[in-house]
Amino acid sequence: MKAVLSDGTTVSAGGTVIGPKHQQKLVSINGYDVELAMADNFVVMVYQDRPGIVAVYGKAFAEAGINIAAMTIARQQEGGKALSVVTVDSPVDAEILEKLRVEIDADLMQSIAITEAY
Predict the structure, then answer these.
(1) Where are the domains of the chain?
(2) Alpha carbon of 99 to those of 17, 18, 70: distances in Å?
């Protein structure tokens, strides 16, 4: 699936259905290979790949009482941009996302709530 947002940003995502229970999974986001089960709440971030990023957002979510249910990290090349997709048990406030965006110098920091049945 490919879409153009109101600000002109193009986004793409791919999915699949696997296994006898027909589990729906995300398998690509904007050209990054991922594997993550569909859920209600995600945080998607793109940043320069470097050590310590997972610790930064893990600590921020823990301090806010937000549980990480699953996550995947992908990159297209060593030392390039990385994509983290984090499944969380509850929505993340915009203030927390903005603080994280600044702290890790993210190109993208977006909360996604899936509101329709999957």
Answers:
(1) 2-113
(2) 35, 36, 21
Q: Which CATH superfamily is domain 2-113 in?
A: ACT domain (3.30.70.260)
- Check if the beta carbon of residue 106 is closer than 8 Å to that of residue 47: yes
Residue pLDDT, tens place only, 65-103 = 999 999 999 998 888 999 999 999 999 999 999 999 999
Predicted structure pTM score: 0.86
- What tokens does 44 get? 């998607």
**What tokens were used for 38?**
């569909």
- Give the pair of three-digit tokens for residue 101: 């965006």
Over residues 4-22, the pLDDT tens digits come to: 767 777 888 899 999 999 9
Strand order in the sheet with 2-4: 2-4, 10-18, 23-29, 32-37
